[in-house]
Amino acid sequence: MKTSSTNESDTNNTAPTTYYQFLEISVRELLIEKGVLSAEDIRNAVKEMDSRGPELGAQVVARAWVDPQFKQSLLQDAPSAVKTLGLDIGPVQLLVVENTPEVHNLIVCTLCSCYPRSLLGLPPDWYKSREYRSRAVREPRSVLLEFGTDISDEVEVRVHDSTADLRYLVLPQRPAGTGHLTEDELAALVKRDSMIGVTEVCFSAI
Ligand SMILES: [Co+2]
After folding, report:
1. Is 114 marked active-site?
2. What is the spatial distance between Cα 96 and Cα 73, in angstroms, rounded to a whole number?
3. Are residues 65 and 110 in the same domain?
């Protein structure tokens, strides 16, 4: 039996450090030691990442709805397209997939929880769950129904498996009856889940 009572070993006992955690610590300490980054730079970057929500993604979607040329470049080369809106998503490759009357797209990371964080913020817990990760691939239509999204049998459902190198964002369909809305009003309609593909964008005129 272990009798050590230092705080450090207590921490180690609760969760063993994984290979990737060691790798992260080693790289981080090396970057700081070589003067490439400061510890504060890293803290600030993490804080900024954690504070991000899905608003940037919603802005991108709204722009694509009102500007066909932007939409085209977004679908062809998303990182460059979002850069024209002043958004830098970093070195991660991003693919935007468009929902149409014929195709509905759904995003998952079967391996872990890869997610377009730079545009949507942190992934929801259900996205990281083993249940979603396995069922989204096996029975996407049932999963969609549980989110209240009934996709007709004539519509093809495409499931995209994200990786560390390639993230996806769904461009949802613009709802009918929104022709008079401004770009900001449109962006306000676009919720996180619709950009993962588990819901559609709704609009009800009052
Ligand atoms: Co992943």
Report:
1. yes
2. 10
3. yes
Same domain for 128 and 91: yes
Whether residue 203 lies inside any domain: the answer is no
Main-chain phi, psi angles of 160, to 5 degrees: -115, 125
- How does pLDDT run across 59-109, given as a tens digit for each residue? 999 999 999 999 999 999 999 999 999 988 888 899 999 999 999 999 999
In the chain, how many domains are there?
A: 2
Which residues constitute the domain of residue 107?
Answer: 53-196
Catalytic, out of 9, 38, 80, 112: 112
From the CA of 10, how far away is ligand 1's center (Å)? 29
pLDDT of residue 206: 62
The amino acid present at 126, given as its one-letter code, is W
Question: For helices 39-51 and 19-33, what crossing angle results, to 10°?
Answer: 130
C-alpha count within 13 angstroms, C-beta hemisphere, residue 152: 6
Q: Are residues 107 and 23 in the same domain?
A: no
pLDDT category of residue 159 using cuts at 50, 70 and 90: very high
Kindly state whether residues 77 and 20 are assigned to the same domain.
Answer: no
CA of 164 to the centre of ligand 1 (A): 6
Minimal CA–CA distance to 61: which of 186, 193, 160?
A: 186
Cα 112 to ligand 1 centre (Å)? 4
Residues 62 and 155 in one domain: yes
Question: What confidence tens digit (pLDDT) does each residue in 166-181 have?
Answer: 999 999 999 999 999 9
